[in-house]
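re: ur question from yesterday

yeah so i grabbed the chain u mentioned. its 649 aa long if i counted rite. heres the sequnce exactly as i have it in my notes:
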Amino acid sequence: MACKTFACKTLARGAVALALTGLLSACGPQIEQAAAPKPITAQNALALQDVVSSQLAPLQLAGRDYLLLASEKRGLVLVDDAGSEQLALDGGTVERFALQQLEPDNWLIAVYDEDSAELQLRLLDLEEGSPRIRYLGAMATTAPQVAMCFSRQAGRTHLFAIDENGLGHEYVVHPREQAWEFTGVRPLYFGEQVSSCVVDDRSGRLLVAQPPLGIWSLNADAEMDEGREVFAASAELPEGEFGGLWLDGISGNLWMTAGDRVLAFNINTPRQKPHFSEALADMQPVSAAVLQGALLALEEESNRVLRFAVTLPEPAAEMQAFRGPVEIPRVRASAQTAPVTSGGDAADDPAIWVNPVNPSASLILGTDKKSGLSVYDLNGKLVEHFAVGRVNNVDLRPIQHGKFVAIAAATNRTDPGVSLFGISAAGEVDYLGLRNLDMEDPYGLCVYRKGADLMAWVSDKDGAVQLLQIVPGTGNVDWSLQQLATLEVESQVEGCVVDDEMQMLFFGEEDGGIWRLDIAGFLAGEAKPQLIAPVDGERLAADVEGMGLYHAGDRSYLVVSSQGNNSYALFSRDGSQFVGHFRVDINLDKHLDGSSETDGLEVSSAAFGSQYPQGLLVVQDGRNRMPSQTQNFKLVSWADIAETLKLPQ
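ran it thru and got these structure tokens back, copy pasting raw so excuse formatting
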């Protein structure tokens, strides 16, 4: 006979999970086992008619309490608080569902239907005062889904679905003209035995139950580090198969079943013992929740819901004082470049060449710090790649030269020095070769003009910053670098930019903040760097990385990558005043993910056509999603930034 039930599937894979139990059991303190209390008995039961359910969840419609149940015979069944059936799909085989309230009297449901092998979306709402369930859309899957849970992120609905092999996927689910769509964001890997999941939207954490190991906690936001850690280790849990997780967002209690017990944890205090643990008499609960002050529990493939009168745990005190992360405004990505060829942490720093004759034919130069320099057009298409070594940071400036209208320079860590590139008026890029430096590890770089001279600041990864003059040659091979000065710094410097008109250097001390230096005063021995914007964890969160200057008269800004909170901070042109910050967000219309963990950036106020009428921001993307690929660069319209932050026009 085929193995269909949740318990049968779990037992069939038990040997694999038991071999892994030690991974988590050592993570938490061992609990002395006290004498088992007497199991509690049910006060009464709600009888169901031919439902065969393994999951329940409470909800409200028009102020009334209901229970939604998965049904292996009838899909979904809705009953009132007395157990009276209100509606059913009357079709499909459903063991698990996810539930999210979109607005009052409006609930989104995701189910895995075994008969059609599909993830399906349904909407539960009211029609003339009566509940109804409507079909929204579906997606075929290659394996049965054993856990599903919703998350709310930046006004979007995300769905996590994990299959019986432990492979999970995150989707954005969203309406289109004909039906709702599933847009894949990223894969997630757990291994077998996953039983359920839930998302705490207050903290942005995804919790996944994986018997017999415990409960994992990880970041629900795909643009953050996964941050996987143990929420509850096996040593903190009773023996037995895990059932479903259910989060009471009002009280802050995370409920689960394990063996013959129902447990509750404080969602705000991971790695703690449950503050509610009761054994239920004569049953092995697979799903539990709280409704009207009573504990409700359901056995696997059951036709009754048992109600228990117990003293429920108090709401978590932290829920009253809990402050979620400050929401940073979001601006949608406009385009992206092709992914770099190298895997891992490879893409790093961009530069923008503005074609003075035809701005729409401008170029983006981007470093692949494992292989070389890539050249892209404004649509993100790869035009050319120069495999010249481990180039890290790149910058460019216009120049008056017989052959070239601009020169780009990039630090090269393969053979310590600076690689030079010439750009012609037609947008053709020539490699001018490598110029070696007396430096251990060339790292950060920014180029500027001092009158007719072309200058560059170059940092040693673990040392000082050198001021160089780029001396033009008559051909491609006789360009040279002349060292003019050395700036001692307190710690690692990478991002930097120069305001050519003001002859002011801005550089980022990754863990310290933004520094400003009057170049002329420094060369005269009369000026030292000033810390003008320290890392504070909110406006700037370490590491401080890329920097760029948006030049538009009185509407000029210093733009800085705040890597630690995946955002971009705007300061006044002199860096003295914080203007605002934003994140680069998903653009579902163009199937683009946002950006995160940004290293380098560049910005230009040039009008690049209808798509970028007020200029363009280019940022490195440390996690390239939708789908998951090697790193790349995201393009953002400055007009969208200005609108979001309400910048003066």
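noticed a couple things. Helices lie at 6-12, 14-18, 22-25, 318-321, 519-523, 638-645. also Residues 204 and 221 are 7 Å apart (CA to CA).
anyway ttyl
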